[in-house]
Design goal:
The protein folds into 4 domains: 119 residues, Rossmann fold; 163 residues, 3-Layer(aba) Sandwich (Rossmann fold), CATH 3.40.50.300; 70 residues, Orthogonal Bundle (Helicase, Ruva Protein, domain 3); 54 residues, Orthogonal Bundle (Arc Repressor Mutant, subunit A). It is built from 20 helices and 16 strands. Strand 1, helix 1 and strand 2 form a beta-alpha-beta unit. The radius of gyration is 25 Å and the shape is globular.
């Protein structure tokens, strides 16, 4: 393998020497520059595998180098060294396109981790992603060839080359977790864990323990040491779904963990360094939540370094037939039955429908219709769509009426609070019905009571029926005071 070369840019000879020694011990070749002019000449002459630059330089700043590389050599990652506590400068560098940043005084072990991860972008170690965008699966590859999706996929490819936090905004059911997972899969962190967590599903009194872990005996019930989500995602990606649901007290602790890149377990005395990329999402408007005082502005700016919008299905109508055929193929394979087809009238009805529940709703509709259709052909009546209204973006979309066949979310394979994409079954309450933003608390409470009554208050079975984890159900039973029901 060709020796990898790193360009060190700093106007202080002592720091250049320290960094050069560190890199040489890692088996890397080095180049050095003391200002922006020298750095640009070195880049043009040698095209290094990585640039490491100080923010303050005699004839400019590290941002100038970041912008030059983004324009002329986008394949070369660049990390910026910032002054201690200069979070604004670090965020500015990330927005300009820097791969990552490190604060002074430089923590050498963290620097070595950063360099090793960054070099995977140019070393060829990154696993090649499959090329066929039309053939996707539930593991994270994204389906769609509409202009909106082509733009989204292109942006994902660019974001995968950075360590900048990304705030993914989109309506419920639009596929925000799939987008986050795809960013992870295309990044040099792809071989490390991708840990999704639904922030709205964790009881407030357990949040600190879930995120940061705890030590044995730190509170009643802590019978052993427990690793937190940050530690579980070490070297990988932590996806904070529905981040707007975090209480203010937890927002403060989360902000510190992100800025310090370290966590302190509950009951622990020392902080533990963690190397985690943060991706976050919510169907709410974080800007409105900040204005209302429900979300800290400093955390908002830390998470929203880059904002990525996932288009709703009504803005990518060209993908509806492609998605429908894909889901029907999955359903037929899962049920081990002949191929299921859509009649022309059924196809037209899907194309004319506005899908307030987005891709998740489309899958749920087809799952239900597949159980109702005759001769493996879905007719228009089998879809049981609500009255179709005009498709303008100003239309107030109504949620579908309750369905005769209901759907569920698969068991949690990562952690009890992970967010999921719905996988249909034929015997449980629709996750779309339960989790849509238009569902009020009374409706949710009644749905939980109904599930408990159906299962004679067997909470494990009720949780399965509702498509949630046992812990999520227990939390809601406590929330709605159903223990005394």
């Amino acid at each position: 393998m060709t020796e990898q070369r790193v360009l060190i840019i700093d106007d202080e000879p002592d720091i250049r020497e320290l960094l050069e020694i560190t890199l040489l011990r890692m088996g890397l070749d080095t180049l050095t520059a003391g200002n922006v002019e020298e750095a640009l000449a070195q880049i043009q002459a040698h095209e290094p595998n990585l640039c490491l630059t100080d923010m303050r330089l005699p004839d400019g700043s590290g941002i100038d180098i970041v912008r030059f590389l983004q324009k002329e050599y986008p394949q070369i990652p660049v990390a910026v060294i910032t002054a201690y506590g200069s979070m604004d400068a670090a965020v500015e560098a990330l927005k300009a396109g820097a791969y990552d940043f490190v604060s002074k005084p430089v923590d050498l072990p963290k620097l070595r981790d950063l360099i090793q991860t960054a070099l995977k972008l140019t070393s060829g170690e990154k696993t090649q992603r499959p090329k066929a965008a039309e053939e996707t699966d539930s593991q994270g590859r994204i389906l769609g060839s509409s202009p909106a999706m082509q733009t989204l996929k292109s942006t994902i490819g660019k974001l995968a080359r950075s360590q900048a936090p990304v705030y993914i905004h989109g309506e419920s059911g639009s596929g925000k977790e799939l987008v986050a997972h795809e960013i992870h899969l295309q990044s040099p962190r792809q071989k490390a864990p991708f840990i999704p967590v639904n922030c709205g599903a964790i009881p407030e009194n357990l949040m600190e323990s879930e995120f940061f872990g705890h030590k044995k005996g730190s509170f009643t019930g802590a019978v052993s040491d427990k690793q937190g989500l940050f530690q579980a995602a070490h070297k990988g990606t932590l996806f904070l779904d529905e981040v707007a649901d975090l209480p203010l007290t937890m927002q403060v602790k989360l902000l510190r963990a992100i800025q310090e890149r370290a966590v302190k377990p509950v009951g622990g005395l020392e902080e533990i360094s963690v190397d985690v990329r943060i991706l976050s999402a919510t169907h709410k408007s974080l800007e409105h939540e900040v204005a209302a005082g429900n979300f800290r502005q400093d955390l908002y700016y830390r998470l929203n370094v880059i904002k990525l919008k996932v288009p709703p299905l009504r803005e990518r109508q060209d993908d509806i037939e492609l998605l429908a055929d894909f889901f029907l193929k999955k359903i037929a394979e899962r049920w081990q039955m002949p191929a299921i087809k859509l009649s022309l009238q059924a196809r037209q009805m899907l194309l004319n429908y506005s899908f307030p529940g987005n891709v998740r709703e489309l899958e749920n509709i087809l799952e239900r219709a597949s159980t109702l259709c005759e001769e493996n052909t879905i007719q228009a009546d089998d879809l049981q769509l609500p009255q179709v209204t005009n498709l303008s973006s100003s239309t107030v979309h109504q949620q579908p009426a309750a369905r005769s066949v209901l759907l569920s979310v698969p068991p949690d394979l990562v952690n009890p609070y992970a967010s999921h994409t719905a996988t249909p079954s034929t015997n449980s309450v629709s996750s779309e019905q339960l989790w849509t933003p238009n569902t009020d608390e009374d409706a949710e409470r009644n749905m939980i009571i109904e599930a408990l009554d159906q299962t004679r208050w067997n909470r494990t079975k009720a949780a399965e029926l509702l498509g949630m984890s046992f812990r999520q159900l227990r939390y809601r039973i406590q929330k709605y005071e159903l223990d005394t029901h």
